[in-house]
Amino acid sequence: MNKRTVFGLLRLTAAAVCLIALIHRLAWGLASNTIASQNFFAYLTNQSNIAFVVLLTIAGVLALRRASDPRWLTVALALVLTWTITAGLVFAILVWQAGVRGIRIDVPWSDQVLHFWLPAVTVAAWALAPGHRAVPWRVIPVTLAYPVLWGVATLVRGPLIGWYPYYFLDPRQVSGPVEFTLSCAIALAVFATVATALVLISRLPDPWDRARTEPPPEDRAPAETARETVQA
Q1: Residue 7: which of 52, 51, 57, 60 has the closest Cα?
Q2: In terms of pTM, does the model score above 0.85?
């Protein structure tokens, strides 16, 4: 079994785990019978993880069939990972703030998987995967398009149903336009920072490709080439 096959199977396994976690999170939320649970698909986290399942399934199949990932797949993975990782960081901050304020927030195992474990493991596997491609820098501003559109849609929908997925988007829970603008700016800055980190990771040398780390014979020093000839 070659390395690409192993990584293909790992991707398919991660997609299955993510799908199971999403189903559990939906069932767990619906059992609480609250408006938040009824708006399961309105959360950026859940939307991005649904995209994550679809993309990892495609990535797994391609890894089983191709020696390297197409450029569009690497770019798509960078986009989706940016969204899932940032959502996980925001979730961690919200849980921490709730604890400081003495507010109880239950975190089922599915939330832990979706927000923390899967993004971390996938980034590591993505960086180590044989045949990965470098992500272009223009991906960074592109990653901001989805959260901006999602935020606009949420602000339009929120007053109609009286609910917002995150407190800093709710005018009733912030002190005013300044706090609202600052919170949104910080969130977008985190998206951009995570995207930048993923671009840098994608540009690391492929650890499985010796051809990238060793110069071809014609580029070596004459003395080194001569020494190899003598030894031969």
Answers
A1: 60
A2: no
